[in-house]
Specification:
Elements lengths: L1 H16 L13 E6 L5 E2 H18 L9 E3 L8 E6 L4 E5 L4 E3 L3 E10 H9 L4 E12 L8 E13 L3 E6 L6 E3 L11 E6 L4 E9 L4 E4 L2 E7 L4 E6 L2 E6 L1 E3 L3 E12 L4 E11 L4 E7 L9 E7 L2 E8 L2 E2 L5 E2 L2 E8 L9 E8 L3 H30 L1
Parallel strand pairs: 2-9, 11-18
Antiparallel strand pairs: 1-4, 3-7, 4-5, 6-7, 7-8, 8-9, 10-12, 12-13, 13-14, 14-15, 15-16, 16-17, 19-20, 20-21, 22-23, 23-26, 24-25, 26-27
């Protein structure tokens, strides 16, 4: 073992002394122009909400003048904007600002678009029809492993503005009055909202939840749904926000128990599992799942839903002892639900199966540690030297 460790140390030392070879870089094209290709105007209502929040934050911090340095980024707006970037090599690329990034065969393109606080004030106070948007486009060379080139070009492009997109969203169904803290999702599928747009047209839309993407939609459009710091159930749709005061209670779980577990140690595959979840009021709900496809190590799987939470199961080929030591004697099949209190005391139960090849897991984790250390070492040499 000592000889093996000495060999590894020698290899790491040798690699650290090697000069990283340089490669001929593909010449980066220049960005010649940028233009908007969508018909969406920028909402003054959304910008006002953002800058008002920033102003309040700076006033609390004692530096209200710092608001002058703030920008409203279209990349993070509730309304999606698209641009077309023209390059000197004759190529043009379309990019959604909500993605901020695209990759071609030869280079990567990043774009940020923003409106300054001063420009916002001028547009708002003068009831302007357009506003100047600053767009910064960066082109990175992707053919170099470590020493990639990058060129940034800045543009100013006019974009139409309007007072608002949505005037109001009003629920047509009863909303819950009690929500559990840290819940994974809100059981609101089918809730209808009356949406009034800025042109006074109205539309009734239904709320739905995409369990694969963990996202909510009102009709076909994304809606941001969350509990605010003031314990308000908050629906943010385009530039309109609807809130409802709710009671936020602690998680309702007492314990979770694995009742049956079919795990094959040779193939590292979980075939089925059964578990019981006990609530603090004594209610017990059972969950069972059979896996049609092979499960993977270190991957989470949903085996059920209860009170707005997912019941998860994860298979691992190691575990940490109380003193932080990594143990590889067993496969650990762990069922868990909830996220616990401020100390992280969530409910969990683990079923263990003897790992006949635990020593291989130890070797793998040792190499993973070496690779992680070496990567950090190289990163520090390259980027640390650049900073210095």
């Amino acid at each position: 073992m000592k000889k093996f460790l000495a060999l590894i140390l020698a290899l790491v030392t040798l690699m650290s002394m090697m000069v990283i070879p340089s490669f001929a870089a593909t010449p980066l094209p220049e960005v010649e122009s940028v233009k908007f290709i969508d018909d969406n105007a920028i909402s003054l209502k959304e910008m006002t909400a953002y800058f008002d929040e920033m102003l309040e934050w700076y006033e609390e911090d004692g530096s209200p003048e710092m608001i002058e340095e703030e920008y409203f980024y279209l990349n993070y707006a509730m309304i999606d904007y698209e641009i077309e970037v023209a390059f000197s090599d004759g190529n043009t690329e379309e990019l959604s600002l909500s993605d901020s990034f695209l990759q071609t065969d030869s280079y990567e393109v990043y774009a940020d678009a923003y409106v300054s606080y001063a420009e916002y004030l001028e547009a708002k106070n003068n009831k302007a029809k357009t506003v100047d948007v600053e767009i910064s486009v960066t082109v990175d060379n992707t053919t170099l492993a470590f020493y990639g080139e990058s060129v940034t070009t800045d543009f100013v492009v006019e974009k139409a503005v309007k007072n608002a997109y949505v005037l109001s969203i009003l629920p047509l169904n009863f909303l819950p009055t009690k929500i559990y803290r840290n819940c994974d999702y809100f059981d609101l599928d089918g809730t209808k909202f009356l949406v009034t747009y800025s042109d006074l047209n109205t539309e009734t839309l239904e709320l739905s939840y995409d369990k694969d993407m963990y996202e909510y939609y009102l009709g076909d459009e994304y809606i941001d749904l969350y509990i605010s710091e003031d314990d308000e159930l908050t629906f943010s749709f385009y530039d309109e926000v609807f809130t409802k005061k709710v009671i936020v209670e602690d998680e309702p779980f007492e314990k979770i128990e694995i009742k049956e577990c079919d795990f094959d140690a040779s193939s590292k595959t979980l075939s089925s599992i059964k578990c019981d979840v006990t609530l603090k009021d004594g209610t017990v709900k059972s969950f069972a799942k059979t896996f049609d496809e092979a499960t993977e190590i270190d991957s989470y799987y949903v085996v059920g839903e209860i009170e707005g939470f997912y019941v998860f199961v994860i298979v691992m080929d190691y575990e940490l002892s109380e003193n932080g030591t990594t143990l590889t004697d067993n496969f650990c099949i762990t069922a868990e639900v909830g996220y616990g209190d401020d100390e992280g005391n969530y409910v969990t139960d683990t079923y263990r199966v003897k790992n006949p090849l635990g020593f291989i897991t130890q070797i793998r984790m040792f190499f993973e540690m070496i690779v992680e250390w070496f990567s950090e070492f190289i990163f520090t040499i390259i980027f640390g030297a650049e900073v210095a």
